[in-house]
Amino acid sequence: MRKMTLSNGKTVEVECLSCALTSGLIEPDGGVVIETEHFQAHQDVAYPIKGLIILASKRHIKCFDELNEEEKLDYINILSKIRKAQREVLGIEHVYYFYNEDTTHHFHTWMVPRYEWMVEFGRSVESVRPVLLHARNEMNDEENVEKVMEAIGLLTNYLNG
Ligand SMILES: [Zn+2]
């Protein structure tokens, strides 16, 4: 078990953060953006970037080749649906996808939108970590966080409307 402190200050003990989120034990900040039978999507609010979505499986698996046929289909459908929503409601032209199998949680894909301000951190995979750190350390002001929350609302409405 791992002790986790939530953003509201509450402490919970969970075996796996992704299990806790997808089972509804923990409500992600900003809420669930969309949910299917096998997956759940939410904004990672630790990194205040508009439209940065985490897509997690509901089953506790870690590797891509553990997905069953039904999950594979569900995954590509929901992933492309979220991608379309990012384009339609937030005008996001490009997205970087990141997913690591040695996660301490379980199967989840990061969808990191590419914005103009990120260019100074380089291109492609090398820029991902500095971009995320910059967002977490320099963009956590009230005004930007509000914009991020607004974007969550727009995506949620679009995807569930
Ligand atoms: Zn899990």
UniProtKB/TrEMBL annotation:
Keywords: Methyltransferase, Transferase. It is an enzyme of class 2 (transferase). Its EC number is 2.1.1.-. InterPro entries: HIT-like_sf. One of its GO terms (biological process) is methylation. GO terms for molecular function: methyltransferase activity. Gene3D superfamilies: HIT-like (3.30.428.10). This is HIT family protein. It comes from Bacillus salipaludis.
